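User: Run a structure prediction on this.
Assistant: Running it now.
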Amino acid sequence: MNISKNLFSRALQGVVFAAVLAAGSAVAEDRMAPGYAEDSGSNVVTTGSGDCLHTGSWSEADATIVGCDGVVLTAPVEVIMGAPSGLVGAIVIPSAALFAFDKAELTEEGKAAIEEYRKTLRPELSEAYEGIIVGHTDSVGDADYNLGLSKRRADAVSAYLVSTGVDSAKLREIGRGENDPIASNDTKEGQAENRRVEIIVIGEPRALDNIRFPSVALFPRRSAELTEEGKTVLDSNIDDARVMLNRSVFIEVIGHTDDVGDDAYNMDLSEQRAAAVSQYLIDAGVDASKIVTAGAGESQPIATNTTEEGRAQNRRVEVLVLGRVK
């Protein structure tokens, strides 16, 4: 009886954690697999003995599917360290200048304060790759409440910036609650310093550390369910990057696809894959309050989509990490 082929049934080989250029896998992920029979879910069909079922037109040139006809994974994980020249700017605004006590609605004085602080921000948000809004509280009261309050305050500042013309797609909001004090919480003065909102501007994406996972290393074709081999890949890289992840201010997980197929489908798949990797990071102990997820679909290629090798490079999940802002 025919069964669906898990394209990662062969042993995972060639995955390395090194800052090298990814060698594009020849796996056809979000398109038909030439020369192979597929079921209604676009999975390669196997025979009862586990061999991939060929169509009548199959030739040696079609032997590009991982797990079929001796093809194994050779796509490495790529690690790109952030460049100091990527431009990172930041301002810190005391919550007292923005909000009434225990509230998350910006006051009129708060809006004016943002504009005053904003004059010193370089690069300007409208020119930047991304803006990160981080809410903080002191340690007084319930930790979960503080976490929620800090996120609501970050959201309020973000909404105000959007109302002034900042592109909402550039903004990311996180709440850190009482987790990142910059002063002692044992004094009123220290508590006041810790109640703050940070606006961090990333001028260029190269300012961020990037762990780039080829999708073929993590997922079957057309799927956002991590394979067991994919979990092993993540485990290895999470362990190696643990210090970097723990010391980070912000982590963004972004899914990407090639341009084959329907735009909406590709966007949905990229979002689901980013969410799967994000949840795996959280389950592995990475602080959930630092993480946001996004799907970019086919909109941010890093290689040509006119070749299979280029499309394989474009199918990826990136974990972008912002280290401590000095």
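Confidence is low (pLDDT under 50) at residues 1-31.
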